[in-house]
Amino acid sequence: MSTKTALATLTGDRLRFDVTLGSGQTIVLDDAEGDAGPRPAELVGAALAGCTAMDVISILRKKRQAVSRYEVRVNGVQGERHPHAFTRFDVVHVVDGAGIDPEAVRRAIELSATKYCSVGSTLASGALELHHAYLIREPDGDERYAEVLVMGPNVTPDALAAGG
């Protein structure tokens, strides 16, 4: 089992966060007003695009497909009401190259979706548990920790809001 980490730290008095990932990389997240980085929800589609893209291009290269250009287009549909949960993602793989075998492309996408892409698998599974907790640290060193809520599997935000 592997654990991935992210630490989001508020910077300033707006909604900007510096996020340090377990790999040591740092990204900036912001809202539309500050606009110093992407919005958090945008990264869901970006993670899906990157994950499946790495899988598919690796498989196509192993199949010796002469790919001259490759991109993955992801469109995510969010609900109108808070929390604006995603209800659908459409993923289109655009493959340029001479003599590309459609079956090789189809199979590479299928393998990514069903076997290799952890992001897509997580989004599609409905099996994710999401635990929310807090840790309050007082200036004197006292700390208070409590779990607030556990969501999933297959629990919709609407059901939680309705008390079920």
Structure keywords:
single chain; 164 residues; alpha+beta; GMP Synthetase, Chain A, domain 3; 3-stranded antiparallel beta sheet; two-stranded antiparallel ribbon; 4 helices
Give the tally of structural domains: 3
CATH superfamily of the largest domain: K homology (KH) domain
CATH uppermost class of the largest domain: Alpha Beta
Question: Quick check: average pLDDT?
Answer: 93
Here the CATH topology of the largest domain equals GMP Synthetase, Chain A, domain 3
Task: Outline the biggest β-sheet.
Answer: 3 strands, antiparallel
Order of helices and strands, N to C? Answer: EEEHEEHHEEH
- Structural class by SSE content: alpha+beta
Topology:
Elements lengths: L5 E5 L6 E5 L4 E4 L10 H23 L6 E10 L7 E11 L5 H15 L1 H8 L4 E8 L5 E9 L5 H5 L3
Antiparallel strand pairs: 1-2, 2-3, 4-5, 6-7
How would you describe what is shown here?
31% of the residues lie in helices and 32% in strands. With 164 residues, the chain is an alpha+beta fold. It has three domains: 1-38; 39-125, GMP Synthetase, Chain A, domain 3, CATH 3.30.300; 130-161, no CATH class. The strands form three sheets. A three-stranded antiparallel sheet has the order 1-2-3, with no helix packed on it. Strand 6 (130-137) and strand 7 form a beta hairpin. The radius of gyration is 20 Å and the shape is elongated.
